[in-house]
Each structure stands twice: as structure tokens, then as C-alpha cells.
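Progress note, project year one: complex with glutamine.
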Amino acid sequence: MTTLHDMSVAQLAQALQTKQVSAVEVATAFLARTGGNPHNAFLDIDSEVTLAQAQASDARIAAGTAGALEGVPIAHKDVFVTRDFATTAGSKILSGYRSPFDATVVQKLGASELGGAGMVSLGKVNCDEFAMGSANENSAYGAVTNPWDTSRVPGGSSGGSAAAVAARLAPAATGTDTGGSIRQPASFCGITGIKPTYGRASRYGMIAYASSLDQAGPMARTAEDCALLLSAMCGADLDRDSTSLDVPAENFSAKLGDSLAGLRIGIPKEFFGEGLAADVRTAIDAALKTLEAEGAKLVPITLPRTELAIPVYYIIAPAEASSNLSRFDGVKFGHRAKDYTDLVSMYKKTRAEGFGEEVKRRIMTGAYVLSHGYYDAYYLQAQKIRRMIADDFQRAFAECDVIAGPVAPTVAWKLGNNASDPLADYLADIFTLPASLAGLPGMSVPVGFGEGKMPVGMQLIGNYLSEARLLNVAHQYQLATDHHLQKPEGI
Ligand code: GLN
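Model obtained:
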């Protein structure tokens, strides 16, 4: 049998169901790896909780009541609230916070007596504060390092999730994607991740950043694993999430084996322009050739408002964040300043102490673009262009079935590189933001290595509710290549 930490979710599920290994043995093996917290990937680990969950899984396997992924470990991004582990969203303002309930996604993946898949939680993984960032350098609990080169960022905001999976600290992790936070860290760490259509996975219990964009999704090493995880995560949650789509859960594994013959892959010219680094381009071009060899046809398309996605997103997301983050006032959750004179001074001091620099920057930007006199000039304009971006995609999907291109313009950069220039991080989001603004599903698939032997990810974007198609393309690609099986040196 392959070493436990090298096994995929699918392999672990199989080994557990056929009792080749127990959930406690698997959990113990992973806990041994997360001890010492390599890459600063975890924010909360509690071996007693994990082992108790594993024992419960073993009991269900013995009783024949196991869930689909019973006993397979998973790590949760720290923006999902959890009852059994602390939840901070990477912020000091929530330090020590413990939720009285589990987020829907956590519940659906967890203990099967609650109707879940039966996965065992290894704890909570690091992320940018309130998921604001592209490098995981905005966490109040320190940056995460990239397992392929520890002098580089893992991407963000789900950097802890990506690093944990790449370093074999967990076979899979949850992530959230508002403007690229599943796809970009997956790309930077050489793993596979998918953000489903907006509304497919419940946002209940996912700490809100920008509610019209936030979406949960799985991060794992293979498309096959992502399909298993996504099948467990999705489904209508109409009573608890007002933007949940009223579409039933789907078995995303069902179409993985479909042939790619005749598939029309749209290649947006705006994704292959000047800003794209040559090493990334070379890897993407080679991947497209592989897909052509599988029978797909490349169709040139245009997404003319790609560049506008940056200013549009960086108006809308901070606007929503400034509203969402008003709930952190020192009264209801987490941190409260010690010295204050009256209520207003308590609010001010609490927020000044609790929020990091980037979060404050976004709250200020958001409050500004929503304020009287600027609302029409910025926020309203941004909303109009957002609609045009979504329409551009619909025109493109008249000519193609899926869209392919890079996830990010470069491979992972060095830690501290953009420390004095927050705009540099914003610009690097150019290829992930359009699909987020349109609410479309998107994924990242490892397609090789670029500068410094760093992983490169290819992005696949599909039309609404076409996750199964994206996973099918990614899976067929992974059957023909082995980039997703490579691992960082020494791991
Ligand atoms: N980098 C983008 C931002 O900072 C996206 C983050 C995300 O998807 N959560 O807002």
C-alpha cells in the first residue's frame, strides 16, 4: 500500500471502506505530519478532537453506516466556522473565537449521523485575514510558506489549504474563492482546486468577505478527488443562505470518464497578452496541445473587458466587505479593546487594534465608494461593468464549451516581494477575477513547472452549473499527464 500521506482522497476512502486501514490509523499518521506546524499552514490543531472523530468514523464503518468519504481527513480554511476548533478568519479581531455551530459545508463533509460524508477534521488552516489577499501574507498569524520553495508565497487567500495539501499534511482541504482564492493558491502550490458556480455551495457559516462573490470549493491533488469532495459540499440550503441555488446536489464523478472528442475550448486572447510570463505561457501552451491530442478543438475567443475586472472587483469587493465587517465591533464576537471611555471609543479602539492593515484599507475603500456622491461614480459604474463582463462570457460560450487560460500571470513570487505595493497583488488577480464577477465555475489544474521549478496552473472556466464538465476535462488531462503527481522535494 502507498504511504498513507501520499494517498489520494479516493484511495483513502477505498482503503478505509475495505478496512485495510482504520480511520484512527489514518488520522494518527496525518497528525504526526502536522505536529510542529510545517509551513505555518495550520491555525488550530487538536489531536483529541481529530482522534475522537476518527473513532466515530471507525464505529460507523464497523456498523455499516459509513458516509461516502468516511474517515478520510480534511483541513478546513479558517473562514468556515467550526464548533470543535477555534475560528479566526486569520484575524486578531476573532482571536479565541469559537462558533456554537458548524458551517454547512463543514457539516456536509463531516460526521455522517448529520447526513455528512464522514470526513475527519485535522483542524483549521491559515488564510489571509478575512480572505483578503493573494499571497497569504495578510494573516494576523504570520505568512504561510510555499512547500515547493519556502522563500516564496503559497498564494492566497486559501494559502494554508494549498500548502497543507501540497506538503501532504492533509489529503484535501476546503477553500473559499471570492476573486481567485481557490484557483490561485492551487496553481502556486501545484494542486487541483475548483470554485463552483456562485450559489452551489452554501455560504452559511462561511465568514463573509464579499457576499455576492464568496463561494466555497475543494482543494485536493486530483480532479477525481475534487469531484468526490464537491459532490459532498454542494446542494441547496434555501432556509439558511438567501443566495443558495435551488439545484440539487450532483454526482460530479459521473462524467469524469467522458471523451474530450469534439470539445470546443475557447482561448481568450486577452489572457495571453503582454503581462503573461513566458514560463507560464509555455506550460499552458503545452497543456493545450495535450487537450488537442485528446480530441478537443481550440477556438479563439475574446473577453474584451478582462482588464476592467480589476477596478470593478476592487470596488465591489471592498464595498461589500465594509458592510460585512461592521459586525466586528467588540460587542458580539472576539476581541474587545481594554481601555476605552465610551461606546464609540470602544468601537474605534477595538477595530483599530483588531484589524490588520489590508482589511482597514479595504474597509476605507469600500466606505468611500459607497458614500454619497461617489456611489454613482464608482459603485454603480462597477456594477454595470460587472454585468457587461458576465454578458461577454455568454457571447463566448456561444462559440465554445469551456474556456482555458492561465490562472495567474506568473508563478509564486518571493515572500515580501509586494510588501510595499498592495496594488501589485491586486493586478496579479487579473485572470481569476472575471469568472468570479460573472459567478461562473472555475478551476485550476497543474500543468507543469516554470521559473525556479515552481508549479504552473491552467485555469478552466465553464458556463453556469458546468462543474462536471470542468472536472471531466481536468481528469482526462490528468490521465494523460503526471504534473499533479509531482511533489515538492523532501516531502
Ligand atoms: N486576491 C483577491 C482579494 O484579495 C481574492 C481573494 C479571494 O478570493 N478571497 O480580494
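The chain has a mean pLDDT of 97.
Residues 4-261+465-485 form a domain with the Amidase signature (AS) enzymes fold (CATH 3.90.1300.10).
No further modelling is planned for this target in the current period.
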